[in-house]
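Journal club side-thread
Mid-discussion, someone asked how the predicted structure for our own chain would compare to the paper's figures. Pasting it here so we can look after the session.
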Amino acid sequence: MNINQIDNVIREGSFQLFEGDFTNAGAASSELKNVLKEIGVDENVIRRASIAAFEAEMNVIIHGVAGTLFYSITKEEIRITVTDIGPGIPDINLAMQEGYSTAPDWVREMGWGAGMGLPNIKKNADSFTIDTVLGEGTTLEIKFYLKYFPLPKVD
């Protein structure tokens, strides 16, 4: 038995994210999606978690200097924590409004930055919190609760 089994963690992983790294955009959320499929999580939960992870990942790539997406899966929940070094969010209430965006023009010209990131995360998550400090960065904690999720067999 390993330490993760003792702590009830089924799987976990992390990704480094960097400003403007559109080449690797979606890698973290895709891996999470594949892991969730592999361990048999309900398809609806997989879809919601993948959307939220992708939106959070893109926010770091668009707005941050660098950041980390960390995920942890237990039999009770999926927890995604995204922390970035960046400008912070001056007005969270405004940022939570669909269509509000502070993305630069060059990002919008690429088809990103439509102002749906944070609203999509909130809409898809069971629990969502934002902690932000202007001039330092932002941390998102996103949770999805798993009901009746069986633990994988351990040899």
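Post-session note: The chain has six helices and five strands.
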